[in-house]
Design brief:
Layout: E1 15-16, H1 23-26, E2 31-32, E3 36-41, H2 47-62, E4 66-70, H3 75-83, H4 89-94, E5 98-102, H5 107-113, H6 119-132, E6 136-140, H7 152-169, E7 172-178, H8 191-194, E8 197-206, E9 209-219, E10 229-234, E11 237-240, E12 256-257, H9 262-267, E13 273-274, E14 278-283, H10 289-302, E15 307-311, H11 316-324, H12 331-335, E16 339-343, H13 351-365, E17 369-373, H14 384-400, E18 404-410, E19 428-437, E20 440-450, E21 460-465, E22 468-471, H15 476-489
Parallel strand pairs: 3-7, 3-8, 4-5, 4-6, 6-7, 14-18, 14-19, 15-16, 15-17, 17-18
Antiparallel strand pairs: 1-2, 8-9, 9-10, 10-11, 12-13, 19-20, 20-21, 21-22
């Protein structure tokens, strides 16, 4: 191949991190340094919050001062709104790490004079940048600047001039804009072509379930995640979860962890589950799935390991009360900060947002063990296909963090497959059942599969009492013979 035609070494533009959890992952490092990024979306989609997080995290994490020039909300309103998320902007302002300037644009003056340019804005913005040596700039929201203009030619010309002015100053800027009518990303349809990076925020409602998503539409000079990603807006700010980037690249550990039930451990080669594996416990109502999950969590806390318990049916107090009847005192582990119970109805969030919320809890609490009880309830907020896709990502997420996870699943009737169809994803599948003999209900437990280890093929009886979950030794026939002998003797 001629030298002139040889492929050049790939080059990635310089970036600065946003500090927004997850966003730097899907942008492969942050926003383009010294260039302009456009954040577009509908009302309430989170544009202003993302822009302010960019400035706040820049000041707090990276020591870069920032200027926020707003055209809709006053400085006091911005300060008050961000205080609800725990940010004290007054401190940053006093330290000259943040400058907030509210610019009131009078539409009537523009309409009366018929002339308009951004020279006055440039002077004002230049003063703000120099006063604190700002490296980051937020302009929120750009439509207000041109709301009184009907001449599209002037709008286009001034927009280009604004983007060029910011680039010439060497600041990294975020400009927010309202979403277009569908044919364009923004209202004017020009900003997305001029900006070097375009991020679109979407807030949609499907079957009364609200979901927020973020997508990087374009990014000049850099690779980036091209899918839609769920994000959360809560008391801790904005969190993005790049879930679609998860894959089959997790490590497989040979370490074993106890199930929390000695008899069940014996069925797993006497050692329990593999560390970082996924375990499924299925059965009909009342067969003891939650009791097994709580025993698993309790054993982890006894080892001094942190555990997360995600409950979709019962409140934390109800779980604590019910487990006390089994002699399991989970409340003491909560007091020792070894256990955290997250109880929420599935319908409060969409599937992807549930996944994002779980990811956030994993990052903050950093558990070694997790229980999800039960996953069946997720069917109420999604189709079988969408629930399976969400759970597949959750399994990958947990495996990637080497969290040993136990999922419970309600079975209906004599079904042999879960209604979420995820049994094939699980490393271990345990089935619990009940049957009636001689006028009393009895419980059975057996291991359908457990990848990578020798395990018992026996069907064993187990009991749930104030001594916890106890699995009998030997198979069911032996257990029934012993029970019959005890009855005959009495």
């Amino acid at each position: 191949m001629p030298a002139a035609l040889k492929k050049k070494k790939s080059f990635m533009i310089e970036k600065i991190p946003t500090g927004v959890s997850g966003l730097d992952n899907i942008t492969n490092g942050g926003l383009p340094k010294g260039r302009t990024a456009l954040v577009a979306g509908g009302a309430g989609s989170g544009k202003t919050l993302l822009g302010m997080e960019f400035l706040i995290q820049g000041a707090m994490q990276y020591g870069e001062a920032g200027v926020a020039m707003t055209f809709e909300e006053t400085s006091d309103e911005i300060i008050s709104n961000m205080a609800s998320l725990g940010y004290d902007l007054d401190v940053l302002i006093r330290r000259k790490k943040l400058f907030i300037d509210y610019v009131h644009v009078e539409r009537r003056q523009i309409e009366e004079t018929g002339e308009y340019d951004l020279e006055g804005l440039f002077i004002r913005l230049d003063h703000a940048i120099k006063s604190i040596n700002a490296k980051r700039v937020l302009l929120d929201t750009i439509e207000v600047l041109f709301a009184g203009l009907r001449n599209e030619g002037i709008v286009r010309s001034e927009l280009r001039r604004l983007f060029r002015w910011l680039k010439d100053r060497g600041v990294t800027a975020v400009i927010t804009a309202e979403a277009g009518d569908g044919s364009t990303i923004t209202r004017h349809g020009l900003e997305e072509y001029v900006a070097d990076c375009v991020i679109f925020l979407d807030h949609r409602v499907n079957e009364q379930i609200s979901t927020r998503r973020i997508r990087v539409v374009k990014y000049r000079g850099s690779t980036h995640g091209t899918n839609e990603y769920p994000f959360l807006l809560d008391q801790n700010g904005l969190t993005v979860l790049p879930i679609t980037a998860l894959g089959l690249n997790h490590k497989a550990s040979s370490e074993r962890v106890s199930t929390g039930v000695p008899g069940l451990d014996s069925m797993m080669g006497g050692l329990g589950f593999f560390r970082g594996s996924s375990v499924l416990v299925t059965g009909t109502a009342g067969t003891g799935k939650s009791s097994i999950a709580s025993s698993f969590v309790n054993a982890a806390c006894e080892r001094g390991e942190r555990a997360l318990y995600f409950a979709f049916e019962e409140s934390p107090d109800q779980i604590l009360r019910n487990m006390r009847s089994l002699g399991i005192r989970l409340d003491k582990w909560i007091k020792q900060d070894l256990l955290k119970i997250i109880a929420v109805r599935p319908t409060t969030l969409g599937l992807e947002n549930h996944l994002a919320a779980i990811c956030k809890e994993l990052d903050e609490f950093r558990p070694k063990i997790a229980a999800v009880d039960p996953i069946t309830n997720l069917i109420s907020i999604g189709t079988q296909t969408s629930v399976k896709a969400m759970l597949t990502r959750l399994v990958d997420l947990l495996k990637g963090r080497q969290v040993t996870a136990l999922f419970t699943n309600l079975m209906v009737g004599t079904a042999t497959e879960t209604n979420t169809e995820i049994s094939s994803l699980m490393d271990t599948w345990i089935m619990v059942r009940e049957f009636e003999v001689e006028g009393s209900r009895r419980r059975l437990i057996y291991v359908l599969k457990s990848r990578g280890m020798e395990h018992s093929a026996e069907v064993r009886e187990f009991t749930i009492s104030n001594r916890g979950v106890q699995v009998t030794s030997g198979d069911l026939k032996s257990s029934l013979r012993r029970r019959k002998g005890q009855l005959d003797a009495s």
